[in-house]
Design a protein that fits this description.
Belongs to the class-I aminoacyl-tRNA synthetase family. Glutamine--tRNA ligase. Plays a critical role in brain development. This is Glutamine--tRNA ligase. It is found in: Cytoplasm, Cytosol. It is built from 24 helices and 26 strands. The protein is of the alpha/beta class and about 775 residues long. α1 packs across α2. It is globular, with a radius of gyration of 33 Å.
Length: about 775
């Protein structure tokens, strides 16, 4: 072990990186062999850091180790001298699996011997800049310089990217001169556009204004046509890393005959938990890409783990997909294909690509897994044992079916089937063996003729196994495309951790409005349009996105400002008696539902001698800058047409202000007050729940931020319940999830806990972003 560690550090690996590599048996073995091959070529000169870096990169990415010697020699001879050339070499070897390898074809495909001169780089950059000169002069340093880089690199495939960038920078400086003060000013925000009437069914998502993402196209624009550079249906073989077999073109032909060239995607959640905000991006991406390109999208439940699946999860997942405005072309289940999957597993064994193994679950955990002593058992023996597994003649954990392949992360022979004596939600006790994700996912995609298998970046390590399995069984192979996950700070979305929060009583259930599950966001009052707009603003990125909640809340305000009618509510009431009105005085006051557009309707509320205002809208002692009611300062009443002035302050036994006696006069005759406040009269009693972030730190799961674990980071003020709030009568017929703007207070939604006798409102968001908030 010490000798190998020294060998790894000798090629330029840090000691920490070398130790990490040693933990991966497959990778360390491949790297050791590659270094030895290179040393045989180089002799006493040894392996320098440049060659060492390429050897490490090659060892971690090479799937077919019989090509190790060939590739190591080419690296040692400096024929392959850059990451760009290495990527081309790996691609060439994948697409040319047969011996012998043509060195001349290899050299041509990898740019061996091609020298790009400084003059060629200068000419290419000059040509690109000339093409965009007019726009460059107009936008100056706000122009997207990455476009220049991209076009120059396309023209000079094997050029050093750093040299191209330096040349671009130099020529741009020569054209535009040094940056001026105007160049250094922030780009002005685009003018906010009003949210159009949101047509969720049509999913033409309007993106309003700028909340930190810059000017953004709608999701449909981002996904339509060739915007994502995805392959066209039937042209799977044109994508990087796709493996072409002698039967590939025939399979693609049959696929096209079945689909008619239509784009087909799927959203494949596990029905063992509730969807969260990250799933919203996946839903928008999968369903949206199909919709934007006149395709279809399946909702497919990956129901291969009967121990954790419940009916409530199946129902909730479909509800949330439809709530976001999408209708699946069909709802399918992995369990629909259990017999087909079993038959394919038998075929896989017959082809010599799978075997029955008896290693225990603990032995198979991690990456440095010892090789299975049963890997080379006879095919007929594995067929008999697999049949016995199906008939229930083994105990759980006593046998598994494993596939003979190495995954991209170095993991050997992933499990295809395991034994579970748990009745399945749909198939009952018909089966006691269940397929794993690694086995099921790509085969279900193939069976359903999916064209684009869209998944998050962490599944990139499974792409090669995805292709391997389809090709090993000689089946149509879809293309897997990865995109970056959407994460939010100040929350956790792990099913296991949410269950912990529920079990410990921190939150009530999966739909507690402090969580970022989709059911929780709906309960809090987030409109689906706002969530879709947020996903559009984040964009379809390859890199992982971590965003702060206030950016999502900004999207919520945009939608609710145009869709939530106004009402008046007082959270901490203070009684006010207007002494110069008769005891039985009562009038109706008209309040516009949307003051900025009164044509959208109005409602009336009663106005009597007794009203209630917010305690915070009165101060007994005048303070500098305070504009509302004081003994010396009158205040206006919104919509009522009155200005009130203090006559008497009534206090309780503890000296606390209990009631105010005031007089009123018409706002038309009175001097204009400094402020107008909201009020209620003959109101409805209600309960109001105010929510704040659930955790105190941005990354509650990060031990460096929260050493004692996420449960120690709970914000004690994440929920405030006000049980004696008052609201005007315009909301008395509200239904669950109806949304309102309580004037001067915030946006609120009617909670499912409401009864005929007592309404309960959840604060969705405040009216404006709190500058001190996260």
């Amino acid at each position: 072990m010490a000798d190998t560690l020294e060998l790894f550090t000798s090629i330029g690996l840090s000691e920490q990186k070398a130790k990490e590599t040693l933990k991966n048996g497959a990778l360390s073995s491949t790297l050791r062999d590659a270094i030895v091959q290179a040393q045989n070529v180089l002799g006493t000169s040894g392996v320098d850091k440049t060659i060492g870096t390429l050897l490490y990169s090659m060892a971690s990415r090479l799937k077919d180790t019989k090509r190790l010697e060939f590739l190591s020699i080419n690296i040692a001879q400096r024929k392959i001298s850059s990451e760009l050339q290495l990527a081309a070499a790996l691609e060439f070897l994948k697409s040319h699996p047969q011996d012998p390898i043509s060195q001349s074809e290899f050299d041509e495909a990898c740019g061996v011997g091609i020298v790009i001169t400084p003059e060629q780089i200068e000419d290419a950059v000059e040509s690109v800049i000339e093409k965009h000169k007019e726009q460059l002069l107009k936008e100056r340093y706000r122009f997207n310089m990455g476009l220049l880089m991209g076009e120059a690199r396309s023209a000079l495939k094997w050029a050093d990217g750093k040299v191209i960038k330096n040349e671009v920078d130099m020529q741009v400086l020569h054209l535009l001169g040094p940056k001026t003060e105007a160049d250094l000013e922030k780009k002005p925000k685009p003018q906010k556009a009003k949210v159009v009437e949101n047509d969720v069914k049509n999913q033409e998502m309007s993106v309003n204004g700028d909340v930190g993402f810059g000017e953004t196209k709608s999701l449909m624009e981002q996904l339509r046509g060739e915007a994502l550079k995805f392959h066209k249906p039937g042209e799977n073989f044109t994508t990087e890393g796709y493996v072409v077999t002698p039967n590939t073109m025939n399979l693609l032909k049959k696929h096209l005959e079945f689909t008619g060239g239509q784009i087909r995607t799927r959203f494949p959640p596990e029905p063992n938990g509730i969807l969260h905000i990250g799933h919203a991006k996946a839903i928008n991406f999968n369903f949206g890409y199909a919709k934007a390109n006149n395709g279809i999208c399946f909702l497919r439940y990956d129901d291969t783990n009967p121990e954790k699946e419940e009916e409530k999860y199946f129902t909730a997942i479909k509800d949330m997909v439809e709530w976001l405005g999408y209708t699946p072309y069909d709802v399918t289940h992995a369990s629909d294909h259990f017999q087909k999957l079993y038959d394919l597993a038998v075929d896989l064994i017959r082809r010599g690509h799978a075997y029955v193994c008896h290693q225990k679950g603990e032995e198979l955990k991690g990456h440095n897994v010892p090789p299975s002593p049963w890997r080379d058992r006879p095919i007929e023996e594995s067929l008999v044992l697999f049949e016995r597994m199906k008939k229930g003649l083994f105990a759980e954990g006593e046998a598994t079916l494993r596939m003979k392949m190495v995954m991209e992360d170095g993991k050997m022979d992933p499990v295809a089937y395991r034994i579970k004596y748990t009745p399945h939600h749909r198939t009952g006790d018909e089966w006691c063996i269940y397929p794993t994700y690694d086995y099921t996912h790509c085969l279900c995609d193939s069976i359903e003729n999916i064209t684009h298998s869209l998944c998050t970046k962490e599944f990139q390590a499974r792409r090669s196994s995805y292709y391997w399995l389809c090709n090993a069984l000689d089946l149509y192979c879809p293309v897997q495309w990865e995109y970056g996950r959407l994460n939010l700070t100040y929350t956790v979305v792990s099913k296991r951790k949410i269950i912990k929060l529920v079990e410990t009583g921190v939150v009530r259930d999966w739909d507690d409005p402090r969580l970022f599950t989709l059911t929780a966001l709906r309960r809090r009052g987030f409109p689906p349009e706002a969530i879709n707009n947020f996903c559009a603003r984040v964009g379809v990125t390859v890199s992982q996105t971590t965003t702060e909640p206030h950016l999502l809340e900004a999207c919520v305000r945009d939608v609710l400002n145009e869709s939530a009618p106004r009402a008046m509510a007082v959270l901490e009431p203070l009684k006010v008696t207007i002494t110069n009105l008769p005891e039985n005085a009562k009038s109706d006051v008209r309040v516009p539902d949307f003051p900025a557009n009164e044509a959208k309707g109005s409602h009336t509320v009663p106005f009597t001698r007794t009203i209630f205002i917010e305690q915070s809208d009165f101060r007994e002692v005048m303070e500098k800058g305070y504009k509302r009611l004081t003994p010396e300062q009158p205040v206006g009443l919104r919509h009522a047409g009155y200005v009130i002035s203090i006559q008497k302050i009534i206090k309780d036994a503890e000296g606390k202000v209990a009631e105010l006696e005031v007089t009123c006069c018409s706002s038309e005759t009175a001097e204009k007050p400094k402020a107008f406040i909201h009020w209620v009269s003959k109101p409805l009693a209600c309960e109001v729940r105010l929510y704040d972030k659930l955790f105190l730190h941005k990354h509650p799961e990060d031990p460096s931020e929260v050493p004692n674990g996420f449960l120690s980071d709970i914000n004690p003020h994440s929920l405030e319940v006000i049980r004696n709030a008052l609201v005007d009568t315009s909301v008395k017929t509200a239904k669950v999830f109806d949304k309102f703007q309580f004037e001067r207070v915030g946006y609120f939604s009617l909670d499912p806990d409401s009864t005929a006798n007592k309404l309960i409102f959840n604060r969705t968001v405040t009216l404006k972003e709190d500058p001190g908030k996260i």
